[in-house]
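Q: Could you fold this chain for me?
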Amino acid sequence: MKLSSVVLFGTVATVLQAAPPVDLDGALRQWLGENPHGVAAAWVDASGVTFAHAGQFAADEARAITPDTYFEIGSLTKVFTGALLADAVQQGKLQLDDTVGEPFAPSAITYRQLVTHTSGLPRMAAKPPGAPRGPVDFDVLQSAYATVAPTAKPSASSYSNLGFAVLGHAVAHTWGEPYADAMRHRVLLPLGLSGTKLAWTEVDPAQLAPGHNAAGRAANLDFKAEAPAGSLMSTTRELARFVLANLGLVETPLNPVLAVTREPLADGDQPTRKIGHAWVIESRGPDTIVWHNGGTDGYRSFLVLNLTKKTGLVLLANHSARGLEALGFSVLAGRMPPAAPKLPPEVKLPADLLADYPGSYALGPVSFIVTLEADALFVQLTGQPKFPVFASAKDELFLRAVPASISFERDAAGKVVALVLHQNGRDQRATRQ
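A: Sure. Below is the predicted structure, expressed as structure tokens.
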């Protein structure tokens, strides 16, 4: 791990030492624990930017994470799409309370409702029967919106990737450009973020940290028409400049637009929260905190600003199983983060013992499905991803992806009849079907 500091003011590179409130190297190591992936950070304050990183590309790929390593930033893209909207309003292309226009079907939904997740639209666009899992093409997005928008009921908070996909394309349409071009020309380049990319295919593979989920390597995602909700690829070096602009510590043509994006527009999903142009806005003591996170199948992102103290933090990781929020809020508050869970030593069980476990275990309306693939065990709860599990002893398994373990119960004849999930201080028993 190497810690470095540099910030660009205009075209002059000035080496300045920022002052993280904790040992940033140690915080990343503590959060990462024994996990074989990587995490990158950028701390920003009035003195400059400090970069730190821990881990590597993958367990079998020892390339180090650096400030120039690319990650999928997922829903952090939404604050950039929010800036595209704010710019269009300032340029007189539309108004926040206008109803959404072409190329989408008419409805009563407004741009304000889309950017604050208060439209009542569902989380995702519905697909035609038999369509493959994953993002949708533009014609499917248009059809999905035309179907649900007329009957959508505005609500206090209804997080919607569908809504943000529609938002990005509708705003770009007012400029007569596709979303990717409008985002590049109206937001990224004016901010000096030429290195932030619209899709993973634009990134040099040598600089792209491979994504991971609980099952191993995760394929990079083609967002298709859902790009405005989560497609951007970036680095801590790039996002540090975005933080500097938001804190007014570097001048860009979009600083006035960014200021608008951080103003509250609607109530959030908790009484203490407001929503701006995608940003979550909170008061924590005397400080105003603004943040957003992101997660894809293989990555996590988190960006948080303390507007009162003019500090900010960017965190990017290439594993999706564990969020970055606890790490980010701890560092911002000057505390070391919670340590990664300590895992027991793994033991290898004989094949005849492993063969005892596969099956379906009922827990109320859902089931645990345990499968054996080659000599590896996996468990999957109804509606959730499949996770690998590892043995610490006979009939005792643990997960690396989440802090949980599983015990198997046997009857008097030695047959496995139930499993018990141990998680969050609770023991939940599921009987074998």
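A (continued): The radius of gyration is 23 Å.
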